[in-house]
């Protein structure tokens, strides 16, 4: 049986690295393995997808995983993100592994035929690594659930993280992080079944009768992207301290601040990416941060 | 004799002026340079109301051309050979932008080794770029096709850039009588350019975005293909009107002595004239020879080729180009067009010749027909022909010996 | 140039944003911040002509983060694209086919890869033709869009993906950063300026000044790149400030060839204070400090400011080579 894992993260969280740690771990454990990432236009903070397949028999599949056995979601804001759509095609009997503090119980809307595993990886990562980098933790969770051997996993963590240039100290912290997550969980039965595909082919005549010239005539329409869910930290303005000096406004790279008619700056949380430049630049220290998704 | 003596280059320039182009970004390269020199002259004399700018490369020239077209200008430019290849990246962009500008390519063989005379590897390197391609046999055709190409390219059902091709030297520097259409009638035939969603202060637009997802890309690319396919009917429509206004008839292909022809040679561009002579000579010898000229190369006139070649005994394809490791390019395209035809010819003979403008004698031309007859008579599978004479080979060998110090 | 400015304090920064929220670039990107501020001064009637880089993928169909026009051309030829747009507008207006109210400011926007390397030929053509356009280069000192490989803008001592610091090559990149400012000046561009987001007023005024000039205008915006340089996004503006205060990134302009430094630090902060903030320079400090290389960087900064001061008649207090 082939185990198909689809990782969903935001750029910078380590989805690609997670898929490689898992791939490497399975390989160490004697499986045939395949892992690969998909890059989009987006940068740090935007949805990223990566894949791992492993099997005792030779793998004959290739490419995008439409029907994962395990969907590993590194950021719970992705659940509602239609671009990421992390549970699409998740098999009956499959597992959703989600990094979250909010959700408990079932996290896959409308699906009672899948299992959910909820973990506070961000909290753990901030505690053990000091950074919300989740690759080792999420890979460990998936490895444990799918029954991969611990030594195989920890060796993979070391190899992959060394490979991307982490310091020996950081690598060791990640090994600790992975081992802790691995210890929290136990293997789950992965008897899964593919959902019935409801797709139909489009007749060519339909495609070609539409004109199809690429032009965005709604210039400036990007606000509907809602990059607000990229945030790890949320800036909060203390209007008592704020003197309307506009430094924060001047230096927000996202145009995610506006100056109202009352002269007060306002944050557009739909699109603020949480870079926290505003906090650092505020001369009055009137901006503070809170962890998104935190209790 | 009607008209006046014009070279192919002069005919191209004159047609650009008749089309009232707004903008001519340019860069010199032999044998095209005369076109842009002529236009530069006219613009500076004030007899052509366009802006002429010399860029620093063909790549930049094509970028400026496409960008200007998107900003609403009717754009003309010209190049040859290496220049076309240097611009090739932008050809794909400009067609992807669906910017209906016109490029005249004056065919010249590609380096290395360097050569000045024509073959069609240059223009055929652009065959997958999304540019429409019309190839001309005479200087008259050059002028007419420039006007037709604008009309088709700018049609909203098409909205694609176009190349009009002419052979270096054999047309570019050859003077022959050309009848230039009357400006008033041209204005009637070719209305002012109306861009689709141009760059605009009042209605801003983003063009050339990244799509990132394969299905979005597929959608736009396939629509580009569909627009190119539509261009054939739009061309036929326009050509019908053109004939009424100017009395000259143009189709995607042109047959010569095809009625009862059993052995038909497919050719393109200026060397087609040599094929016509061979047909006449074969006819005198009692061979039912005929010729099919490809005028439209993109979109490829699949139906016309199939309709006109069905039922023939043997077809030959004269390729003045060479895809190393494959052979002639048109050969595969013609064979592809014939595959599903019921009574398709029993053999298709590939013949490659006239690379780098190598001269072709009557004997060489006839040999292609003779081979077609032999294939038919003996029922043999054709093997590729490469046209070269023994006197030429002797001269090459001598040159090689000199170059290598063995003489 | 003592023309009146509409920017007296940073508070005078125009309140209209022509960059919409929701772009796809990294959080904390100095490049997009520079574009945002630039656009505020130019106003809405702009045609951005782009060469391949991070900004290219910010324009991700079907969304556009710009309320103005955008045209992606190719890596090598954005200035030629600007030429085409400018010429088309000019000829259409001259022929009466386009009202003057539809005129656009044409701005090339590219990273340093296009501006310093692959697009330099096209740039030189546009300058020689005195094309009336702006060139905004967001300079993050490497090919950021492809994952941070060296460009000719990469400074001495920076590690990149193609000039990694290894035991055999302990310094990373050992080539000097190309002086694009001087390249443009040598080509007689009427206006050339450097910008830093951290010095917003200087930034606004330079764009304003450049707007009064016709012809090719270059703005090299120092673009702190959290992803490529390796620092926390929140420090993006602070790092630009440090680059200016250490003298690594001089703020200056050239009007018809006459160079003037628009910000002269009284005393330079040691360069190591700047280098230490970014992972791309880590190898200069770890596992052991590469004193010689750091001194060399300090020395080149010192020489720069000594020469600039001698030319323009100012004096900058320089840190000693060992004052780290
Ligand atoms: S954290 Fe502040 S500066 Fe950064 S995007 Fe949000 S509002 Fe803008
Ligand atoms: S920088 Fe601080 S004080 Fe100034 S407007 Fe922003 S929040 Fe208020
Ligand atoms: S890689 Fe650097 S320059 Fe590119 S978007 Fe990210 S921060 Fe900006």
Q: Could you please describe the fold and organization of this structure?
A:
The complex is a heterotrimer of chains A (295), B (407) and C (324). By secondary structure, chain A is an alpha/beta fold. Chain A has eight helices and eleven strands. Chain A has helices at residues 15-28, 121-128, 135-145, 150-163, 168-184, 204-208, 247-251, 277-281; strands at 2-10, 32-38, 47-55, 70-73, 95-99, 115-119, 215-216, 233-237, 257-259, 265-267, 287-291. In chain A, strands 2-3-1-4-5-6 form a six-stranded mixed beta sheet, covered by helices on one side. Chain A has a two-stranded antiparallel sheet with strand order 8-11. Chain A has a two-stranded antiparallel sheet with strand order 9-10. In chain A, strand 2 and strand 3 (47-55) form a beta hairpin. In chain A, helix 1 crosses helix 4. Chain A is globular, with a radius of gyration of 21 Å. Chain B has a six-stranded mixed beta sheet, with helices on both faces. In chain B, helix 13 links the parallel strand 15 and strand 16 (385-386). The longest helix of chain B is centred in the middle third of the chain and has 33 residues, at 214-246. Chain C has one domain (10-264): Rossmann fold. In chain C, 35% of the residues lie in helices and 15% in strands. Chain C has helices at 30-42, 54-58, 78-94, 112-118, 120-128, 180-186, 200-211, 226-230, 236-245, 271-275, 291-312; strands at residues 46-50, 69-72, 105-111, 133-139, 191-196, 216-222, 251-255, 258-263. Chain C has an eight-stranded mixed beta sheet with strand order 2-1-3-4-6-5-7-8, sandwiched between helices. Chains A and C meet through helix 7 and helix 8 of A and helix 1, helix 2 and helix 9 of C. One iron/sulfur cluster binds at residues 237, 242-248, 265, 282, 284, 286-287 of chain A.
Task: Itemize the secondary structure elements and their pairings.
The complex is a heterotrimer of chains A (295), B (407) and C (324).
Chain A: E1 2-10, H1 15-28, E2 32-38, E3 47-55, E4 70-73, E5 95-99, E6 115-119, H2 121-128, H3 135-145, H4 150-163, H5 168-184, H6 204-208, E7 215-216, E8 233-237, H7 247-251, E9 257-259, E10 265-267, H8 277-281, E11 287-291
Helix pairs in contact in A: 1-3, 1-4, 2-5, 3-4, 3-5, 4-5
Chain B: E1 4-6, H1 8-18, E2 23-26, H2 33-45, E3 51-54, H3 58-70, E4 76-79, H4 81-86, H5 88-96, E5 102-107, H6 121-125, E6 132-135, H7 139-154, E7 162-167, E8 176-178, H8 183-189, E9 206-207, H9 214-246, E10 253-256, E11 263-268, H10 272-284, E12 289-294, E13 296-298, H11 302-309, E14 314-319, H12 329-338, E15 347-352, H13 362-378, E16 385-386, H14 390-403
Parallel strand pairs in B: 2-3, 4-5, 5-7, 6-7, 11-12, 11-14, 14-15, 15-16
Antiparallel strand pairs in B: 1-8, 6-13, 10-12
Helix pairs in contact in B: 1-2, 1-7, 3-5, 7-9, 10-13, 11-12
Chain C: H1 30-42, E1 46-50, H2 54-58, E2 69-72, H3 78-94, E3 105-111, H4 112-118, H5 120-128, E4 133-139, H6 180-186, E5 191-196, H7 200-211, E6 216-222, H8 226-230, H9 236-245, E7 251-255, E8 258-263, H10 271-275, H11 291-312
Parallel strand pairs in C: 1-2, 1-3, 3-4, 4-6, 5-6
Antiparallel strand pairs in C: 5-7, 7-8
Helix pairs in contact in C: 1-7, 3-5
The structure holds iron/sulfur cluster (3 copies).
Residues 237, 242-248, 265, 282, 284, 286-287 of chain A line the site of one iron/sulfur cluster.
């Amino acid at each position: 049986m082939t185990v198909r894992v689809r990782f969903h993260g935001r750029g910078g969280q380590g989805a690609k690295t997670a898929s490689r740690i898992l791939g490497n771990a399975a390989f160490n454990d004697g499986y045939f393995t395949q892992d690969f990432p998909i890059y989009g236009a987006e940068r740090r903070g935007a949805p990223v997808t990566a894949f791992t397949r492993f099997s005792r028999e030779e793998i004959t599949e290739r490419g995008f995983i439409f029907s994962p056995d395990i969907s590993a979601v590194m950021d719970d804001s992705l659940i509602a993100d239609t671009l990421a759509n992390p549970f699409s095609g998740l098999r009956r009997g499959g597992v959703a592994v989600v990094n979250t503090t909010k959700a408990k119980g079932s996290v896959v809307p409308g699906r009672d035929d899948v299992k959910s595993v909820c973990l506070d990886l961000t909290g753990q990562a901030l505690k053990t690594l000091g950074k919300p980098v989740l690759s080792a933790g999420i890979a460990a969770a998936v490895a444990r659930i799918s029954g991969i051997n611990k030594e195989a996993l920890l060796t993979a963590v070391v190899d992959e993280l060394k490979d991307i240039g982490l310091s020996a100290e950081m690598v060791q912290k990640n090994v600790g992080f992975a081992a802790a997550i691995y210890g929290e969980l136990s293997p789950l039965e992965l008897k899964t079944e593919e959902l019935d595909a409801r797709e139909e082919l489009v007749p060519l005549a339909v495609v070609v009768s539409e004109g199809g010239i690429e032009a965005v005539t709604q210039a400036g329409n990007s606000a509907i992207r809602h990059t607000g869910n990229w945030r790890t930290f949320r800036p909060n303005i203390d209007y008592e301290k704020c003197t309307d000096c506009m430094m924060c406004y001047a230096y927000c790279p996202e145009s995610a601040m506006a100056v109202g008619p009352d002269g007060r700056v306002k944050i557009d949380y739909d699109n603020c990416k949480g870079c926290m430049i505003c906090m650092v630049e505020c001369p009055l220290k009137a901006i503070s941060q809170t962890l998104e998704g935190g209790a | 004799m009607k008209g006046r003596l014009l070279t192919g280059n002069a005919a191209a320039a004159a047609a650009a002026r008749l089309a009232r182009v707004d903008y001519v970004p340019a860069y010199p390269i032999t044998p095209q340079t005369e076109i842009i020199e002529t236009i530069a002259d006219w613009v500076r004399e004030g007899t052509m109301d366009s802006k002429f700018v010399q860029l620093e490369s063909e790549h930049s020239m094509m970028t400026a051309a496409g960008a200007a077209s998107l900003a609403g200008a009717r754009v003309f430019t010209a190049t040859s050979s290496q220049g076309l290849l240097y611009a090739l990246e932008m050809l794909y962009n400009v067609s992807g932008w669906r910017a209906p500008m016109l490029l005249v390519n004056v065919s010249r063989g590609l380096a290395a080794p360097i050569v000045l005379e024509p073959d069609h590897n240059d223009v055929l390197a652009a065959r997958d770029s999304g540019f429409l391609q019309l190839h001309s046999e005479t200087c008259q055709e050059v002028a007419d096709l420039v006007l037709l190409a604008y009309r088709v390219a700018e049609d909203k059902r098409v909205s694609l850039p176009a190349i009009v091709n002419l052979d270096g030297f054999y047309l570019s520097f050859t003077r022959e009588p050309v009848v230039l259409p009357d400006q008033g009638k041209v204005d009637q035939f070719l209305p002012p350019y109306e861009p689709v969603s141009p760059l605009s202060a009042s209605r801003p637009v983003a063009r050339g975005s990244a799509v990132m997802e394969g299905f979005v890309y597929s959608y736009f690319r396939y629509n580009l293909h569909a627009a190119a396919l539509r261009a054939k009917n739009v061309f036929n429509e326009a050509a019908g009107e053109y004939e009424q206004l100017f009395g000259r008839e143009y189709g995607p292909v042109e047959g010569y002595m095809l009625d009862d022809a059993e052995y038909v040679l497919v050719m393109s561009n200026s060397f087609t004239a040599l094929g016509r002579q061979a047909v006449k000579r074969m006819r005198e010898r009692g061979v039912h020879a005929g010729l099919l000229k490809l005028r439209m190369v993109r979109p490829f006139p699949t139906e016309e080729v199939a309709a006109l070649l069905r039922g023939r005994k043997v077809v030959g394809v004269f390729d003045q180009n060479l895809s190393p490791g494959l052979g002639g390019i048109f050969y595969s395209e013609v064979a592809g067009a014939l595959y599903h035809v019921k009574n398709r010819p029993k053999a298709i003979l590939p013949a490659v010749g006239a690379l780098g403008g190598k001269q072709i004698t009557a004997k060489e031309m006839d040999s292609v027909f003779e081979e077609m007859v032999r294939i038919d008579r003996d029922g043999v599978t054709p093997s590729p022909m490469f046209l070269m004479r023994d006197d030429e080979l002797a001269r090459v060998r001598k040159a090689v010996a000199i170059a290598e110090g063995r003489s | 140039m003592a023309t009146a400015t509409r920017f007296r304090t940073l508070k005078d920064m125009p309140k209209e944003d022509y960059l919409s929220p929701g772009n796809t670039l990294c959080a904390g990107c100095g490049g997009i911040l520079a574009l945002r501020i630039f656009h505020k001064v130019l106003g809405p009637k702009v045609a951005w002509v782009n060469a391949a880089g991070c900004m290219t993928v910010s324009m991700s169909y079907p969304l556009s983060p710009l309320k103005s026009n955008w045209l992606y051309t190719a890596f090598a030829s954005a200035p030629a694209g600007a030429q085409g747009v400018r010429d088309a507008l000019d000829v259409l207006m001259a022929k009466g086919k386009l009202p003057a109210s539809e005129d656009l400011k044409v701005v090339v926007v590219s990273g340093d890869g296009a501006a310093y390397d692959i697009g330099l030929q096209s740039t030189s053509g546009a300058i020689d033709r005195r094309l009336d356009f702006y060139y905004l280069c967001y300079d993050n000192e490497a090919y950021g869009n492809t994952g941070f490989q060296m460009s000719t803008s990469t400074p001495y001592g920076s590690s990149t993906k193609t000039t990694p610091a290894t035991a055999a090559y302990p310094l990373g990149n050992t080539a000097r950063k190309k002086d694009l400012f001087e390249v443009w000046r040598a080509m007689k561009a009427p206006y050339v300026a450097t910008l830093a987001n951290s010095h917003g007023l200087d930034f606004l005024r330079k764009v304003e000044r450049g707007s009064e000039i016709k012809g090719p205008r270059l703005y090299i915006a120092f673009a702190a790149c959290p992803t490529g340089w390796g620092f926390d996004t929140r420090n993006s503006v602070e790092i630009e400030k440090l680059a200016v205060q250490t003298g690594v990134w001089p703020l200056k302009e050239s009007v018809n060839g006459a160079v003037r430094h628009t910000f002269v630090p009284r005393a330079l902060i040691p360069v190591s204070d700047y280098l230490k903030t970014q992972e791309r320079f880590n190898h200069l400090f770890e596992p052991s400090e590469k004193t010689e290389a750091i001194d060399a960087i300090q020395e080149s900064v010192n020489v720069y400011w000594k020469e600039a001061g001698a030319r323009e008649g100012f004096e900058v207090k320089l840190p000693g080579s060992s004052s780290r």
